[in-house]
Design a protein that fits this description.
It is built from 23 helices and 19 strands. By secondary structure, it is α+β, with helices and mostly antiparallel strands. It folds into two domains: 191 residues, Penicillin-binding protein 2a (Domain 2) (Alpha-Beta Complex), CATH 3.90.1310; 363 residues, DD-peptidase/beta-lactamase superfamily (Beta-lactamase), CATH 3.40.710.
């Protein structure tokens, strides 16, 4: 056989194969694949989207935190619209005729792109408006109503925690092609974190048009209709009544209140104040500009997004590091005469007995004591330089979760700040700084910053005597198991045996009645609680009031931080707030003798103390 014949046979074979592939594809599209047929006949069909009910958000006891209520969207299919009474239409929905005309100018401009699609014309109309529309719908060809669900909130408060949903914009659709115009998505908080569970799956009905474009019947008797799949209800770790109570305690104050169950890492309460009024969340687009313009930033979740100096509660960490490093014992005595003085440096302190041991230093919150402890850690002779001593201190501190994100399931979580050798080299000159140069770290000031969630986690870690679970908001259930990272214990670099001494000092801070205890105001009737006050220095106004606590002392059920910006001493506002939350959770009610304290907290208004930029 000649080479010419070989080439001809190859060409013929190739042509046959190509035509065979084309024929198979045509057969598949036209005969086998009915989906293609439905698409091809789209000009004779009308698709009506059926939106699923979004999953509810429940608290740990099954109480509904975020529910659904029925509303209606008015849809329009521009291709089907004929001349209609614009004034009558506008009267039903309280619209301006200019709005309607502008909408249709837009439809005409994009008519090729829109084609036979139905678009949302007016969102979330009232039931009364919808009924009026249905009665007169024959007057408005091309318009229809579609049931939708929007959010409702049985418990007051928690707007920052729950988050909100809003319609997807073109930018979001480009990044998430599974969404379409008219869809809603969780934008913040739990709504964002659990979006894949809550959103459900859209369905649709397909109707047949006649030659005059009138809707006749379900296409193929509904064979190709798709039923919407409701979203999954998500059970959270939040205690609904406790969350509502925490919101009341923090009303008219700027700051955060966070409670964790130490044995599980489950977040019981997370308050950011001032927060978003839940009555505005269901229709966030209507109120968004006003909320965004609020100088107190109610959309800002301070509990996880606002790194601040921890203040004196951080002394507990330095005490634990000192014990582990062997430079401190519970009986180590240091003197304090209204502060710590070296040369021209003075770190002030309030008046109290002197000298004192470790337990008393926690109970009285002595600044000078922890200046000595910190320097003994950093200047430890076993390290070849101050810088090496500092790096070791930093490793200890980071093992408590400071200076990094805790890897929670809360959107927007910040890592806080942690100083480095390189930073101090830039500030003081390479190799020219000493422990005294960074002495402010001894009392939780200076270059360290942490979120209130970090401090709540510290309280839980001490309650557990040296370990913690990553804090989280989703409850572990058979239907929705939590991620494995929330079941992993994280141990600090401090041996668990050293925590008992710190716990004893925290117990004295609340329960010692012989004088000098800084947190007597946080004593809870019938409960042995442990705590530590903090006053975080603030160069922009009054100091911040800080308090961490856990209770009971043995087998702790709750660990709390209260961080009140510009609230002054830790015992002034933070300690009462945190202890009332503990009492409410453990005892179910506030004891009569503590009712005046509760009322003082409810009535307290500190907003005027916070410097904000008025717009």
């Amino acid at each position: 056989m000649s080479s010419f014949q070989n080439r001809r046979n190859i060409v013929v074979a190739a042509i046959v194969i190509v035509f065979a592939v084309i024929a198979f594809r045509l057969f598949k599209v036209q005969i086998l694949d009915k989906e293609y047929r439905i698409t091809a006949e789209n000009n004779a069909l009308k698709y009506e989207t059926v939106y699923p009910a979004r999953g509810r958000i429940l608290d740990r006891n099954g109480e509904v935190l975020v529910d659904n209520k029925l509303t209606y969207d008015i849809m329009v299919t521009p291709y089907d619209v004929r001349a209609f009474d614009t004034l009558a239409f506008c009267r039903i929905f309280d619209l301006d005729t200019a709005f309607v005309h502008e909408k249709f100018r837009e439809y005409r401009r994009f008519r090729t792109r829109i084609g036979y699609q139905s678009l949302v014309f007016k969102r979330q109309v009232t039931g009364e408006q919808y009924n009026m529309f249905i009665e007169k719908s024959y007057l408005f060809p091309g318009f229809s109503g579609v049931p939708r669900t929007t959010r409702s909130y049985p418990f007051p408060g928690g707007g920052n925690l729950y988050g909100y949903i809003s319609e997807v914009d073109p930018g979001y659709i480009r990044e998430h092609p599974e969404y379409r115009s008219g869809d809603y998505v969780g934008k913040t908080g739990m709504e964002e974190a659990y979006e894949t569970l809550l959103r459900g799956e859209k369905g649709y009905n397909i109707y047949l048009r006649d030659a005059h474009n009138r809707i006749q019947e379900h296409y193929k008797d509904g064979e190709y209709d798709k039923t919407a799949v409701p979203g999954v209800d998500v059970v959270t770790t939040i205690d609904g009544p406790l969350q509502a109570y925490g919101e009341r305690l923090m009303k008219n104050k700027v700051g955060s209140l966070v409670a964790i169950e130490p044995s599980t890492g489950e977040i019981l309460t997370m308050v950011s104040s001032p927060g978003i009024d839940v009555d505005l969340l269901a229709d966030i687009s209507k109120h968004y500009k006003d909320i965004a313009a609020d100088p107190y930033k109610p959309m800002f979740n301070r509990a996880v997004m606002s790194p601040q100096p921890p203040g004196s509660v951080f002394k507990l960490v330095n005490g634990l590091i000192g014990l582990q490093e062997g430079v401190l014992t519970p009986n180590t005595l240091y003197g304090c005469h209204h502060g710590y003085v070296v040369g021209n440096l003075r770190v002030g302190c309030h008046g109290h007995p002197s000298p004192i041991n470790l337990y008393q230093s926690i109970m009285m919150s002595c600044n000078a004591y922890y200046c000595y402890v910190f320097r003994s850690i950093i200047d430890n002779p076993k390290y070849e330089s101050v810088q090496k001593g500092f790096e070791r201190w930093k490793e200890y501190t980071e093992s408590f979760g400071f200076g990094r994100k805790l890897d929670t399931d809360i959107p927007g979580e910040k890592a806080g700040t942690m100083p480095t050798v390189e930073r101090y080299d830039r500030i003081h000159g390479k190799g020219r700084w000493k422990s005294i140069s960074i002495i402010s770290l001894s009392i939780g000031q200076g270059e360290i910053g942490c979120t209130p969630l970090h401090l709540a986690n510290l309280a839980a870690t001490i309650a557990n005597r040296g370990w913690f679970y990553t804090p989280h908001l989703q409850k572990d259930t058979p239907d929705c198991p939590i991620d494995g990272r929330f079941k992993e214990r994280h141990y600090t670099m401090v041996d668990t045996s050293h925590f008992a001494d710190i716990v004893q000092g925290m117990e004295l801070a609340i329960n010692y009645t012989g004088g000098g205890a800084t947190a007597n105001i946080a004593r809870v009737p019938g409960v042995i609680a442990c705590g530590k006050t903090g006053t975080a220095q603030n160069p922009h106004g009054d100091d911040h009031s800080v308090f961490i606590t856990f209770a009971p002392k043995d087998d702790p059920k709750i660990a709390v931080v209260a961080y009140v910006e510009n609230g002054g001493f830790g015992a002034t506002w933070a300690a009462p707030i945190a202890s009332l939350l503990v009492e409410k959770y453990l005892n179910g009610e506030i004891a009569p003798e503590r009712k005046p304290l509760e009322q003082r907290v409810f009535d307290g208004n500190l907003l005027h103390k916070v410097k904000v930029k008025k717009r």
